[in-house]
Amino acid sequence: MDQIQDSTTDDVESSMPTQSGTALPPPAPNVSGRHRSMVWDHFTRIPNGDPSKPRAKCNYCTASYACDTKTNGTKSMKYHIEKQCKKCPFNRTDKSQTTLAWKAVGGSDSGELVSIAFSVDACRQSLAEMIILDELPFRFVEGEGFKKFMLTVCPKWVTIPSRVTVAKDCFSVYTREKNKLRSALQGQRISLTTDTWTSVQNLNYMCLTAHFIDDDWNLHKRILSFCLVENHKGDTLGKAIEMCLHDWGRPKYLAITLDNASSNNGAVSYLKKKTKYRKDTILEHEFLHVRCCAHILNLIVCEGLREFDESIAKVRGVVKYVKSSPQRWSMFGKCIQLEEITCKSDICLDVPTRWNSTYLMLERAIKFRRAFEQLEEEDSAFLTSIGDDDDDDEEDVEQVMNRRTSRKLGPPNNIDWEKVRLFVKFLKLFHDATLRFSEGLYATCNSFFLELATISGAIDMECQNQNLVVGLMATNMKKKFNKYWGNLDNMNMLLFVGILLDPRYKMRYLDFELEVMYAHDPTKAVDLSCSVKNTLTRMYEAYLANEDVSNSLQQQQQPRSLSREDVNLTGEDGASTDVDVRAQRMAIFQQLLQSEDSLESKSEVDRYLDEKCETDSASFDILVWWKVNSFRYRVLSKIARDVLAIPVSTVASESCFSTAGRVLDPFRSSLSPMMVEGLICTQNWLRSSSTPISLRTIMDDVEDFERQLEMGVFIIYFIL
Predict the structure, then answer these.
(1) Contact call for residues 313 and 321 (beta carbons, < 8 A)
(2) Which of 411, 426, 413 is nearest to 358 (CA)?
(3) What is the Cα–Cα distance from 516 to 256, expressed in whole angstroms?
(4) Locate the BED-type domain: which residues (predicted)?
(5) β-bridge pairing 98-104 and 111-117
(6) pLDDT tens sequence across 439-478
(7) How many CB atoms lie within 10 A of CB 6?
(8) How far apart are the first and last CA of the chain?
(9) Dihedral of CA 623/627/630/632: which sign?
């Protein structure tokens, strides 16, 4: 019975394709009616041999194998025919044989024919990258549908790896990409952003991101680490950052951007203590700490919206009413058609803890004002169903019902819509500034002072406005603005150096805005202007003395006046030596020329600031300008490359947590922290080279992630 089962298995296997997709011929039927193994169509028993140890010979390559049916079976002979015998006409084609394939160029329809050789290693690597990029679970490769799909697409790839093998391949991709990035960071001076996050299971995570501009003046951002930390204390975070940088070979860094948590001050102090006296440290890391401008801006706006405004509550009420049921949404759609509103965007409900979502709710709702007014006429329940606010979740039900019975806000009237219009107009300025601060594709350091001056002027203007609603909002914002940005002396001067390194503005724009901002104290404006220029000059001198600069420039870093003592023209007794006096004087003259060259080199800052400002245009690219002019400002261009890479917000690190929320879903809760770090970091590294970062997508992901945390949906793991 066992022999019949074995031969049946051989018969079934013989009808399946081999690893190359070429099927072996079916076995010939046996005369006796029993199933006969397919190998006997390719092997012949060796006659006159030892009957107790029979052997069979391959018909193509004469290789012999033991073929006792009870002891040896036919498995080894079958393996020889399918995978080893190169002379078998039914065997797969040579692995090194190439096939023609169409290779697209630049993602378009155009391309060319290229020859490609099948490679199992290349297939496994691409599969691992797909798992990482598309955030797929490892068990995906063991799915029946995926195996069937691969059998059709690539029949040569018979042995699909298991989920354990794919996990190992993913970590191998992580190791490979990490080594490539480590090589790219050699010699680069980077800037860092970091942020922390506590999961619902009280697991503390820290994300560390590097920002730098390469030698070709392209801006990059790469996640260096996504690791567990014991707590959010300053020293703990500082040690975690130091350990991460040590793992990356201790790259040089200029600044680190953090939010306004008090523990971050301790982290910065720890890093300063550890790196203050290193040779590659600039100005003893005096300007190391950069506070997240987007976070400060959020605090300013939230302070302005702290006072509960009835008009915003009414708009929130009608939006919530329309989106509360399909019937109401359908009726609202009919009102839109009746009013012939062509706006393609839909209304959205805000998250009260995020002011930018409130702005988007108001900005979209005002476009459908006529539809809401039409709904008020069409729906009789519209007037009586609008509550006074949405803060009912944590209150007693009886208290809520009593309060709703006593007072109903109802839908917004003409005065309310006018207030909303003013809110949208005023908040748009802050919304646009947040987008610019959080930009990931372009340099943001040079835009900080532009936004700061614009916001300061807008708040001062609204404070003097006769409109009580917007004026009250601006007054509250002004208090928070003065706390963080009112005293420029307490701010990181590198953010102001960024505007000097923008060839469209330089010192002229800085002086202009400071005179406006400090019109009541002109001396203060002059002092700040001198302080910013002095910071740039100090950095220039530090870069000259730093080993980043080429040896030729290092030789010019200490110019001094020359005297007769520089060359010994006389002997100890005052008599002339036998050295040619003229040759020594020529040597003094050559040193004088070198000294003049050095003075000219050290005046790069003055020469740059004295030149005419570039014309501002939509197509102007500051990195391209510095790339073209780097040969004119050999040292100053190095400063520009490092300063312009400083991010003014921590969005790059915060967006990592939304990715972690998708990677660490309830179905992947057994992932180890090391594997989680590998998946998140590698995804960032693979995407950074091909896919641009969408700020809107990042902010939406962060909002969705925080909303999931509030609802208690997000479950995190800890394992292995």
Answers:
(1) no
(2) 426
(3) 30
(4) 34-92
(5) antiparallel
(6) 878 899 999 999 999 999 999 888 887 677 788 888 889 9
(7) 16
(8) 45
(9) negative
| 387 token code pair | 């509550």
User: What single-letter amino acid sits at 653?
Assistant: S
Closest C-alpha to 644, from 627, 661, 669, 668:
627
Strands 64-66 and 204-213: unpaired
Residue 1 is predicted with a pLDDT of: 39
Q: How many C-beta atoms surround the C-beta of residue 337 within 10 A?
A: 10
Element (H, E) at 244: helix 234-247
52: CB partners within 8 A, 6+ apart: none
* DSSP annotation string for 294-310: HHHHHHHHHHHT-S--H
Do 455 and 654 touch, CB atoms closer than 8 A? Answer: no
φ, ψ of residue 116 to 5 degrees: the values are -125, 130
Q: What is the 3-state secondary structure (H, E, C) of 424-448?
A: HHHHHHHHHHHHHHCCCCCCCHHHH
Give dist(CA 223, CA 225) in Å, integer. Answer: 6
**Separation of alpha carbons 137 and 141, rounded Å:** 8
What is the length of the chain?
A: 720
What are the helix and strand counts (H, E) for the chain?
27, 10
Q: Supply the pTM of this predicted model.
A: 0.72
Please tell me the distance from the alpha carbon of residue 606 to that of residue 613, in angstroms, as a whole number: 13
Place of tokens 């029993």: 34
pLDDT in tens, 641-687: 999 999 998 887 766 666 665 665 555 666 788 888 899 899 999 98
| 61 DSSP β-pair partners | none
**The two structure tokens encoding residue 73:** 């079976």
Between CA 25 and CA 201 the distance in angstroms is 60
Among 20-24, 48-52, 403-407, the range of highest mean pLDDT? 48-52
Percentage of residues in the chain having pLDDT higher than 90: 29
Q: How far apart are the C-alpha atoms of 641 and 501, rounded to whole Å?
A: 10
